[in-house]
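Entry 14. Structure prediction run on the chain below.
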Amino acid sequence: MGNRYHYLEELEDFLGGTFHQDISSPQQALDEFISEVTKECLLSTIKDCEELLNSDVTHQEKEDFIQQHAEVYFPESELTPLQWLCKIIEQMREAVKTK
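Output returned:
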């Protein structure tokens, strides 16, 4: 993948490791992630998420990437995968303030 796409590997690990099939809910999984990691890890994860959002891949490729790696039923959340990721970023930013 090269250095340019290193953030994608990190993002795959975050999405797949946090939002997997054994979670009770995506919100609970995010809350657990936030409580277990350091402030630096949160900042790094936010950066990786933002790199995807700001990348030059198509909107559909971004949505597909998120859906491939996060075991989340997006219709239930009434959000598109990109809207959902933006919401996750906002919650992590808020958590950084209190860490």
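The mean pLDDT is 93.
Filed with the rest of this week's runs.
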